[in-house]
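User: Let's play a game. I give you a shape written as tokens, and you guess the letters that built it. Ready? Here's round one.
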């Protein structure tokens, strides 16, 4: 029976880490740290739950069902699963996540050298996505191109930056501000949405499993095992990156007071600590991190839309790349502002889906549990999204008074899960009850 060699398994883990480590993973942890200040530990705990724990659980859930989102959503039916899949892949692909990788890498890696003009951004994004498309056209070689070549360089640069953040802080941690004063763990949890890692895991699951299959691993049990090991390697790496960057932000108030983005915090820190060479280090870290994530996202979206639309994979990849060029030129601030409410709305649905899938062995009939729980997650996620978009005045007063500060969906979803589970156990199991593969 064909198995992976140790070096190939490590390369698979490195590839998985690189796929996840993108724009949001770099720019949001410093903002969490600066906002949380003396409460950075609590905020980091919340951030790690959504930025590390949830993606790892998603990889495990997808590995158990064969790596595809369609298998994960099968208990709610093909049409509902297709709508959810379409929404997730649009968010990850041409609408937000993939274009953001270009804008972040431009703002942090190249704008300090060439300026912030729209012309410079357009030229950069065009070259960037041509390279992304070129790498994405050959998904079977991702372990070699990303796992064995690009990621080791990225990890080395991250080790230098992370060690500096811990050993050479710019100052002492300051007082917390805003909502971090009263609910640092919840705020950290919600900021973890911005990494889009849980949504990314829903797309990357099939990329990881396909990379394993391309190595000749056909046994489902081994595919699941290797995917989980790769997810654990990626989770450890992401956790270390997040903790060091949150610490960097918490101790950088003196050099980047009241920063509006993590871009400013990081650029000020590397300039303060390393001088002119710091800009080069940051350019390497950001460019490689964003590039690898963009390749993974475009590959995943290309495979999904190619199958759904019955079009050639390479034609779809080119179309996605061209769309990303156009969207990325809206600018980083605009993309972050638009993506915030969308992520608040979709994340409860994604979290509920993963939890239900991991517990699927408990259900007599998965549809009886999945359908009501996901419906409630969607409704209350949309309510939280409306609040995040500033549309509170359009909502009834009792919805605005829900507890949770952005987590108002959690209690209704948990209550629905308990009731649906009881209903499921009290009724007989049908002959075709869903079971994970």
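Assistant: Ready! My guess for every position:
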């Amino acid at each position: 029976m064909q198995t992976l060699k140790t070096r190939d398994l490590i390369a698979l883990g490195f590839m998985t880490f690189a796929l996840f480590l993108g724009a949001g993973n770099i720019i949001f942890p410093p903002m969490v740290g600066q906002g949380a200040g003396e409460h950075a530990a609590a905020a980091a705990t919340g951030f790690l739950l959504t930025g590390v724990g949830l993606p790892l659980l998603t990889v495990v859930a997808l590995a158990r069902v064969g790596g595809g989102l369609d298998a994960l959503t099968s208990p709610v039916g093909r049409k509902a699963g297709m709508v959810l899949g379409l929404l997730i892949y649009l968010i990850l692909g041409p609408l937000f996540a993939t274009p953001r990788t270009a804008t972040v890498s431009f703002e942090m890696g190249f704008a300090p050298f060439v300026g912030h003009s729209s012309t410079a951004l357009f030229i950069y994004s065009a070259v960037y996505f041509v390279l992304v498309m070129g790498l994405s056209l050959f998904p079977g070689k991702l372990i070699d191109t990303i796992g064995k070549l690009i990621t080791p360089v990225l990890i080395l640069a991250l080790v230098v930056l992370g060690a500096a953040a811990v050993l050479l802080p710019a100052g002492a941690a300051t007082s917390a501000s805003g909502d971090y004063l009263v609910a640092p763990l919840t705020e950290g949890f919600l900021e973890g949405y911005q990494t889009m890692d849980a949504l990314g895991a829903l797309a990357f699951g099939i990329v990881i499993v396909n990379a394993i299959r391309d190595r000749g691993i056909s046994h489902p049990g081994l595919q699941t095992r290797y995917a989980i090991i790769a997810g654990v390697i990626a989770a450890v790496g992401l956790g270390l990156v997040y903790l060091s960057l949150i610490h960097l932000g918490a101790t950088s108030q003196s050099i980047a007071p009241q920063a509006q983005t993590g871009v400013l915090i990081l650029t000020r820190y590397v300039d303060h600590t390393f001088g002119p060479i710091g800009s080069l280090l940051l350019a390497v870290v950001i460019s490689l991190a964003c590039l690898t994530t963009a390749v993974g996202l475009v590959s995943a979206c290309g495979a999904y839309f190619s199958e759904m639309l019955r079009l050639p994979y390479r034609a779809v990849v080119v179309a996605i790349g061209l769309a990303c060029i156009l969207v990325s030129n809206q600018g980083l601030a605009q993309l972050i502002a638009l993506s915030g409410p969308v992520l608040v709305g979709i994340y409860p649905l994604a979290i509920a889906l993963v939890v239900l899938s991991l517990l699927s062995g408990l259900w007599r009939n998965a549809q009886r549990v999945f359908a009501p729980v996901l419906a409630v997650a969607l409704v209350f996620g949309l309510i939280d999204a409306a609040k995040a978009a500033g549309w509170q005045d359009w909502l009834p007063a009792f919805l605005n008074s829900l507890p949770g500060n952005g987590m108002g969906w959690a209690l209704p979803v948990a209550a629905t899960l308990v009731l649906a589970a009881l209903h499921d156990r009290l009724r007989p199991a049908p002959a075709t009850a869903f079971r994970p593969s």
